[in-house]
Write a structure and sequence with these properties.
Elements: E1 17-18, E2 23-24, E3 31-32, H1 42-45, E4 47-48
Antiparallel strand pairs: 1-2, 3-4
């Protein structure tokens, strides 16, 4: 992977999000489909599996 790539993200509840810059702090993310999903709809098939809520930040 090219080190110049950036992951843009606007999910402010994620602990890896730099909301002021609309960026993810991770070098890479895992994208997964939702549980029991084979709908083909983007909102079902492209979930960020690396998401962690800010309240669990340790």
């Amino acid at each position: 992977m090219n080190k110049c790539q950036k992951i843009q993200c606007s999910v402010s509840s994620c602990m890896f999000n730099e909301f002021s810059e609309n960026l993810c702090n991770l070098d890479a993310i895992q994208v997964s489909a939702g549980a029991n999903s084979d709908s083909g709809a983007p909102y079902d098939e492209t979930l960020c599996a690396s998401y962690k809520p800010k309240k669990n930040k340790k």
